[in-house]
Write a structure and sequence with these properties.
single chain; 143 residues; alpha/beta; Rossmann fold
Length: 143
């Protein structure tokens, strides 16, 4: 009998791997590590307080040295989702990533821009179901 999900992917960062690990036993899946689900690149700001980042630190095009742009984040996530749509069509997948990456992707699928990022309500551990049809997405907040 097929379970509710067909595959589980997670960012290589420890906190995403640990979150995905919680699902492993319950769903009978193994975690596939996916680099394109990685957190936003923050370069030389790594290890500093969040307040040290320039405001806004995510911009559409690269503005701040060493900070990954929304364009870059969106490109790698859409590359991955396109690949999944082609290779795993009709399957239900779980992707465990990071707040900024998830928000940039969700805003894209909701046809909204970065102006909506500061007000986007995505609590730690938020769960969304995204049903993709080409480049468009139907989004439902689950938790």
């Amino acid at each position: 009998m097929r379970g509710p999900f067909d595959a589980l992917y997670a960012s290589p960062l420890q906190r995403a791997q640990e979150s995905a690990g919680i699902l492993v036993d319950r769903l009978g899946l193994t975690v596939k590590t996916e680099e394109r689900l990685l957190e936003t690149g923050i370069g030389g700001y790594q290890g500093q307080m969040f307040s040290a980042l320039p405001k806004p630190y995510i911009t559409e095009a690269p503005v701040h040295e060493g900070l990954e742009s929304a364009l870059s984040i969106r490109s790698r996530i859409l590359n991955w989702t396109d690949e999944m749509q082609n290779s795993r069509s009709g399957q239900r997948l779980i992707a465990v990533s990071h707040r900024d990456v998830v928000i940039v992707a969700l805003l894209h699928w909701m046809n909204q821009g970065l102006d909506d990022l500061p007000d986007f309500d995505l609590a730690t551990g938020g769960v969304y179901e995204v049903r993709l049809d080409g480049d468009a997405g139907q989004i439902e907040r689950v938790v």
